[in-house]
Write a structure and sequence with these properties.
Length: 67
Amino acid sequence: MIITKDTLIGEALDYDIELAQFLFAIGMHCLGCPASRGESLEQACAVHGTNCDELIKAMNEYLANKN
């Protein structure tokens, strides 16, 4: 899976639950909430004041190194 700004949080977590660590790091702690699972990473970053490009890069690097 390649993570993009349009990737839904729920899709990312369903692919690899360990990606939650990156979301926790930006202050997103309600990952089980249906509303948050339906948000794109870009939407979540906007709400939490986080650079989306940096988050996506970190997540993709994590996935690349894991496989």
